[in-house]
């Protein structure tokens, strides 16, 4: 029994070390992303918390466990890591992107997935639980419910649920965040835009869950012009 207990202890310790390595890798990658992307740390923090709250509400219906919910929170900040590879004249352009520039911008999803694959391989993290969630978040957060998104043109429930959750959380806060090409909107306007996109670009079930959280006052909304 003493030997078995020792082996179990080693397994638990190893798993803990792997998770800590993953967390450190995520934090480092987030730092690189913030250096290139105009999105603020506040936006990243809020949208990750929105995603966790949505996932927690959906958990009973989909049979999510606590680990699934917390991994959505952990991985959400890396959704746009691929933007590191986008040139400044496109990423930081103050006006609307032309067709060629937008085509280049759209490559950040696939580039992000490739970067994550390299990170996981380099750090020996391919066996971590839910690691495919991280890949899906980077690759598919711009897919649209009606199939009009990118990079694969997935539609409906063919889009991984974690990507559908992230899309709602990310877009809501992005509406309210300043960008090089526009000022952020207020909360009412952002809510109206979510409703407009529901069932078209965004999963209506996820949007409805988010709106229920909003109406219940459970969202950590920013103060006006806090950024």
What does this structure look like?
This protein is mostly helical and 227 residues long. The protein is built from ten helices and no strands. It has helices at residues 2-36, 41-62, 66-75, 88-91, 99-106, 108-122, 131-140, 161-176, 187-197, 204-215. α7 (131-140) crosses α8 (161-176). The termini are far apart. The model is unreliable at 8-13 (pLDDT under 50).
Give me some keywords for this one.
about 65% helix, globular, 10 helices, about 230 residues, mainly alpha
The poorly predicted ranges are 8-13
The radius of gyration over CA amounts to 18 Å
CA-based shape: globular
Helix content: 55-70%
- How would you classify the helix and strand content by structural class? mainly alpha
Main sheet characteristics: none
- Compressed to H and E, one letter per element, the order equals HHHHHHHHHH
Terminal CA distance: 57 Å
Percent in strands: under 5%
Summed up, the helix count is 10
Q: Number of DSSP strands?
A: 0
Mean pLDDT metric: 83
Quick take:
The protein has helices at 2-36, 41-62, 66-75, 88-91, 99-106, 108-122, 131-140, 161-176, 187-197, 204-215. It is mostly helical.
SSE layout and pairing:
Elements: H1 2-36, H2 41-62, H3 66-75, H4 88-91, H5 99-106, H6 108-122, H7 131-140, H8 161-176, H9 187-197, H10 204-215
Helix pairs in contact: 2-3, 2-8, 2-10, 6-7, 7-8, 8-9
């Amino acid at each position: 029994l003493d030997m078995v207990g020792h082996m179990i202890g080693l397994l638990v310790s190893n798993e803990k070390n792997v998770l800590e390595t993953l967390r450190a890798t995520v934090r480092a990658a987030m730092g690189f992303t913030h250096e290139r992307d105009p999105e603020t740390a506040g936006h990243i923090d809020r949208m990750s918390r929105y995603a966790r709250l949505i996932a927690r509400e959906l958990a009973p219906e989909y049979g999510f466990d606590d680990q699934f919910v917390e991994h959505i929170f952990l991985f959400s900040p890396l959704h746009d890591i691929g933007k590191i590879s986008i040139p400044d004249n496109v990423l930081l352009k103050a006006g609307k992107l032309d067709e060629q520039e937008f085509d280049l911008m759209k490559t950040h999803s696939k580039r992000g997935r490739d970067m994550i694959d390299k990170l996981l391989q380099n750090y020996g993290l391919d066996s971590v639980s839910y690691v495919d969630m991280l890949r899906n978040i980077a690759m598919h957060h711009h897919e649209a419910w009606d199939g009009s998104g990118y990079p694969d043109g997935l539609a409906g429930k063919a889009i991984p649920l974690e990507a559908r959750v992230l899309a709602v959380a990310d877009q809501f806060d992005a509406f309210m965040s300043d960008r090089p090409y526009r000022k952020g909107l207020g909360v009412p306007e952002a809510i109206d835009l979510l409703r407009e996109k529901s069932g078209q670009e965004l999963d209506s079930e996820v949007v409805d869950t988010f709106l229920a959280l909003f109406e219940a006052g459970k969202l950590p909304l920013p103060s006006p012009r806090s950024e």
